[in-house]
Amino acid sequence: MIDLHSHVLFGIDDGPETIEGSLDICRAAAADGITVLAATPHVRDDYPTTPELMEERLAEVQSAAGDLIRVVPGGELDIAELGRPADDLRRFGLAGSPRYLLVETPYLGWPLDFADRVFRLASAGIRAVIAHPERNPDVQERPELVEQLVRGGALLQLTAASIDGRFGERARKTSDLLIDRGLAHLVASDAHEAEVRAIGLSGACAAIGDETLARYLTVDVPEAIVASAEPPPRPDVQRSRGLFRRRSRNGR
Question: Per-residue DSSP letters for 101-144?
């Protein structure tokens, strides 16, 4: 599996404070079956991460992790940061790809110009990957809000803890709805620590309820981003519904 959203870099945002904490995340990810992990530190007012600092800490974590797991670059950019020059944005390219950029969905409110900003990115040759939209209360009330983003070329990245229920019922139901409507393209951990907001995708894969679809969300699309290629089409599958899926999530 490939995890394209984590806060594995130490001393840079609200992730681990030390390199040992970074290595704890790497070890937990490898134990869960993750082979590639994107380091995507926050880039916003409270964490004004520069490309230089991201690259410096990335090199330190890569060296310490060795062959344990492949750690690749990135950044999670607040929408207010999208007005930067395109060359600056590309240095935060997801998995090192200049074609993709991870954009943070606000936790409260829905920017009226969100779709316009995504379109301007696309005009510069950069495809937005929208992080954790299912955790936004406006999207939970009106999932159709993200349809305009997807029509504009964006990809939606759901959080594993939303899919498997750790982030609550509203986030889980919204994740289900986005997956069933074909609006979700990949799943990531958004891990900040090895155990708290835990790294790992296997639980979400089990909750998805279809092996082919789970692979699409955790391997096929992330793999295309790592390769700076076009994402593959979504497989034509129907997930199991209702009580069976709830029991599968609970391991019963």
Answer: EEEEPPSS---TTHHHHHHHHHHTT-EEEEE-GGGSHHHHH-TT
The boundaries of the domain holding residue 207 are: 2-250
Q: How far is CA 236 from the centre of its chain?
A: 23
Tokens 């983003």 correspond to what residue? 149
198: its two tokens: 């835990």
CATH number at residue 100: 3.20.20.140
DSSP state of 158: E
Cα separation, 158 vs 94, in Å, equals: 15
Q: 61 and 8 in contact (C-beta within 8 Å)? A: yes
Whether the CB-CB separation of 11 and 18 falls below 8 Å is answered with yes
> How are strands ordered across the β-sheet holding 155-159?
47-48, 42-44, 76-77, 100-104, 127-131, 155-159, 186-188
| 123-149-187-127 Cα dihedral, nearest 10 degrees | 0
pLDDT, tens only, 199-216? 889 999 999 999 999 999
Contact 198, 191 (CB under 8 A): yes
Cβ pair 55, 21 in contact under 8 A: no
CA nearest neighbour of 217 among 206, 227, 242: 206
β-pair type (76-77, 100-104):
parallel
How many domains would you assign to the chain?
1
Q: How far apart are CA 33 and CA 160, in angstroms?
A: 14
Tens-place pLDDT, residues 53-85? 999 999 999 999 999 999 999 999 999 999 999
Categorise residue 12: left if φ over 0, alpha if ψ from -120 to 50, beta otherwise.
alpha
